[in-house]
Write a structure and sequence with these properties.
- This protein is of the alpha/beta class.
- Helices cover 44% and strands 21% of the residues.
- Strands 7, 8, 9, 10, 11, 12, 13 and 14 form an eight-stranded mixed beta sheet that branches. Strands 2-3-1-4-5-6 form a six-stranded mixed beta sheet, with helices on both faces.
- The longest helix is centred in the N-terminal third of the chain and has 27 residues.
- The radius of gyration is 23 Å and the shape is globular.
- Bound molecules: P-hydroxybenzoic acid (PHB).
């Protein structure tokens, strides 16, 4: 009898010790973030800015979310859709990441979305605007901190129509981002009475613009709407000016045309009008603190990509905090992100049912080395999320 009670007490002690041990082990668990971003090629600077912004937010939290240390693994996706499934599978199956953060290129993100769905891995997209991932491919485990390709395009279509431009030529890389950006522009422009008279394209990441610029010079539209980003945007703006078109035909686009590129574009970018969910001279408190810290840490002015990386981390934090670090509570985590109001440097935003930011789109004008806010072109713009059943 005595003996048995002793044993029971021992067993209870052992259980206690075990659970205490398990408790401290889980408190030491980490959150593994897998960056899948371009670190080489025409979008390399965009990938770096996204990672910088993401790390900045996590560092501001002392490197932890809900008590768990955030650790990182990363893969260079080279903006190559052909390698995308393999790269995403590496992060999910070999590295066992808790969340994938990526990417820039719309063609690459589509493969990531499929891998995320197949494995029920959380995916936060810090740039790629592919309409389908918050459209027909929308899913509880897929979120975006950036924009849909439709959003800034639609806003610029409206601006161009309001300016009474009648004819437009579009010029872009031939892939989802370019096609969908032009689609948004066309919708806004033609609803306002304009007409897209010619759609010109070249393969990604080709930058041989000469023949296309010659064709534009002969068509003489009121406005050219163009989607390029990173190194390609630098080249297009310089070539457009060198071809003698800058003072003859208005050149507009989504803000990627002049974001993170102004040092390299110099005076050839002066005066360009673009639409985007960020500008360089916003006056909200969050942007001022963000910009100051970013400049201090990275010795660089932040751009829209850095903001999107920062906000991807804020979204992850909203989910992780909602479940107090219990990543197995996926429903709670998803609800936490869905309910969040993100205090972004762009201005606060919420997420649509399809998990895409509902946000103001600014009209910006290049003045010197800044994209200066000219006012809100479209307020609280939500992507139509056509085809999303969620
Ligand atoms: C895209 O491929 O979705 C994309 C790439 C670069 C940008 C914007 C969109 O700046």
């Amino acid at each position: 009898m005595h003996h048995r009670r002793h044993l029971t007490a021992l067993a209870a002690l052992a259980t206690l010790a075990l659970s205490t041990f398990a408790g401290s082990a889980s408190a030491q668990e980490k959150i593994k973030v897998g960056f899948m971003l371009p670190y080489t090629g025409t979008y390399a600077a965009l990938g770096v800015a996204i990672e910088n912004g993401f790390r900045q937010y996590i560092d501001e939290q002392g490197g932890k979310l809900a008590g768990k240390t955030v650790e990182y693994v990363k893969v260079d996706d080279e903006s190559d859709p052909a390698k995308a499934a393999d790269n995403a599978n590496k992060l999910v199956k070999r590295d066992n990441v808790d969340v994938m953060v990526g990417t820039v290129h719309s063609g690459v993100v589509m493969a990531m979305a499929k891998v995320a769905k197949d494995n029920n891995t959380l995916l936060i997209i810090p740039n790629a605007g592919a309409n389908v991932v918050t459209g027909p491919l929308c899913a509880p485990n897929i979120f975006r901190s950036s924009f849909s390709n439709w959003q800034p395009g639609f806003a610029m279509g409206k601006v161009a129509a309001d300016k009474k431009y009648k004819t437009a030529v579009t010029l872009t890389w031939k892939y989802a981002a370019g096609d969908e950006s032009v689609g948004g522009f066309k919708e806004g422009f033609e609803a306002g009475g304009g007409k897209v008279v010619k759609e010109l394209t070249l393969p990604f990441p080709n930058v041989e613009f000469q023949a296309l610029l010659t064709e534009i010079a002969s068509i003489k539209p009121d406005v050219v709407y163009t989607f390029f980003a990173g190194g390609g945007a630098v080249k297009l703006v310089k070539d457009f000016a060198a071809a003698g078109l800058k003072d003859k035909i208005a050149l507009v686009g989504p803000g990627f045309l002049t974001d993170g590129t102004l040092e390299a574009q110099g005076k050839d970018a002066e005066g360009l009008l673009t639409t985007l969910h960020y500008a360089d001279d916003l006056t909200n408190k969050k942007d001022q603190a963000f910009t100051l810290q970013y400049a201090k840490t990275y010795k660089l002015q932040p751009d829209v990509y850095a903001v999107q990386g920062y906000d991807a981390a804020q979204m992850l934090a909203a989910g992780v905090n909602a479940v107090k670090g219990d990543l197995k509570n996926r429903d709670g985590l998803v609800k936490g992100i869905e309910a969040a109001k993100i205090d972004s440097p762009r201005g606060a935003f919420t997420l649509s049912k399809a998990h895409n930011p509902v946000q103001d789109i600014y009209l910006r004008k290049v003045v010197g080395k800044e994209n200066k806010n000219q006012g809100v072109a479209v307020q609280a713009l939500a992507d139509p999320a056509r085809g999303c059943k969620m």
